Protein 1
Amino acid sequence: MGQSSGGNQSDLLTKSRGRIKHPSLYRVVLLNDDYTTMDFVVSILIEIFGKSASEATAIMLDVHEMGRGVVGTFPFDIAKTKIIMVEKRAQSEQFPLKCVMEKI
Ligand code: TYC
């Protein structure tokens, strides 16, 4: 036990021999529509994306005026999960709210 002969174990952790691969990031983009209520969009931004009430209101108004807006950037699985959570909440309230993800 203890130190083994030959290479030391930490070599495996420290010698990356080349480029480290970072996970790709995705922008989550919220889309405007004419039917989803402003209050619902604000609560989605607070509850699913962790925004403060004032940040959420600013993002919602920006999307309302510009047609779309970036809510955040996340690794694939987190972006996908948040989008599914938004879709489920919107469906259950019968709002057509959509958000999409774009690879950065
Ligand atoms: N345009 C909607 C309204 O006037 C509000 C809204 C904002 C809807 C942002 C979707 O992503 C959205 N009630």
Protein 2
Amino acid sequence: MRRAGKVVAEMHEATRAAAKPGVTTRQIDAVAREVLERRGATSNFLGYHGFPAVICTSPNDMIVHGIPGDYRLKEGDILSIDCGAIVEGYHGDAAFTMPIGEVSPLARRLIEVTERSLWAGIAELRKGNRLHEVGRAVQKVVEQAAFSVVREYVGHAIGTAMHEQPQVPNYWPGSPGPTLKSGMVFAVEPMVNAGGPETRLLDDGWSVVTADGSLSAHFEHTIAVTDQGPEVLTLP
Ligand code: MG
Ligand code: MG
């Protein structure tokens, strides 16, 4: 899983460098495919319930699961890129949101708060702690900034499949959840809206947008619980 995580980190670096005004999201997908090929890794996104690409690209009010295509990035957009890889049967999964050129102060703050909420959640992935402390920590950071946490889509355990049980909500679900043990691995992935938390699925059956049209950001890492604390596997 460390090796899969390194491939995902390399996909992040390559796609981040490629995402500029004038570039289409399909071109960014092609850059991610090159990384997978170069590293001899396979895609856990391509073909997942028929998904046609190796990354998800979700601009502006799109929360997650955007399909790379003809959308051409422009100055002032924000773009969420979600990447995954399989190495020898083990999965990595991580996402980030970036500004395209100069963006509004609100967009910058949304990106900063969402990334900070991810790290607050990661800090809770300690042996003996309860899993839902992750969501409680994420929610606190987000709501203190007067943003909202998406409820319909959540993080997940990950291993020989991308989406394993249990789920990892980004909010306090009303119960503490399972006790964490060394060797457990989770994808923590806050999805944060500048407006309300409600979502809407577009007609393509994949793209999830904010119901109120507000901006949305998404950060994700794959993290192992170890005796020494959380180990983030999807960092470079
Ligand atoms: Mg992901
Ligand atoms: Mg995920």
